[in-house]
Specification:
This protein has about 325 residues and is an all-alpha fold. It contains 14 helices and two strands; from the N terminus they run H-H-H-H-H-E-H-H-H-H-E-H-H-H-H-H. It has a domain of about 220 residues.
Length: about 325
Amino acid sequence: MTSDRPAGAGDRRRLALITVVTVALVTLPLVGSSYLVSVATLALYLAYVGQAWNVMMGFAGQLSLGHSLYVGLGAYVAAGIFVHFGVGPWAGLWLAVAICSAVGAFIGLLAFRLRISGVQLSLLTVAFAELARIGFDHLDWFGGPGGLFLRVGDRNHIDLLGFRGPPAMYYYAMLALAAGALGVCALLLRRRPGYYWRAIREDEVAAQALGIDTFRWKMLAVVLSSAMTAIAGVFFAFYNNSLFPEQIFGFGRSIEIILGPVIGGLGTLFGPIVGAVALVLLGDGTTEILAKAGVDLPGARQVVHGLVLLLVTIYLPNGLWPPLARALGFQPRRL
């Protein structure tokens, strides 16, 4: 039975949709309010860190519940040398990535050589994040429990070297990071790493039987994920200008990172993005509505996030992206 739909109609529709979304994202700071720009920046940040975590769990099947470790280390390393030595964020970025990659490699080496996986691996990552929180809470050089504060600078002037400027500058920086992460992940998943990660995720024993060096490829996923997350930490430091151990290393930060991929679609390319947008729109939207109504309800955002997670888990176990993709004419697949 043939279809009356012209050949290539689906491709044209997808191309049109991508074009519209791209134009909307690029022009948003030009037409949107400062509040909208800040909300969009948060959504892009969550999409980026979700993509970084998705590399380790969604693609390679290695569960981490302590990814706040890499956000915190990246933020504190770059912020610390900026505050004390005047070293700019771009140099600090490389140092942060190097340190987080080394820490991720150490955790991966410890876990995989001792054959730690699943729940035990997740607890190991939580333990390291908690160790970092306690450690930085007692390091006066990094401000201790009183926090580390960065010079804000001129918000009306764009200083790319010092990564200082108006909200729109941070928005475009985060947009570039999110787009870059999407492109890198799409490229890797269509090359050897993606095929090997998928094999390891589905059945590690079978992957080993096929001759895949599972240790090597799991280590690659862990190191890449930690390095990507470190970049988000540097952005976090220079965007917020203040760091507190409890704030950045806390377990809640790790949960914030993983919610986007889980709700959007674990192991998919666009799942972390869809999940992040849904969380920010629903969470901040609820907070804004309550504020306008004069209702003070502490933890409203967390309650909404919990309800969304519950509903998605029950009714859409594969996440929001697969049904949304089908509705838009895409062919979603868990890579």
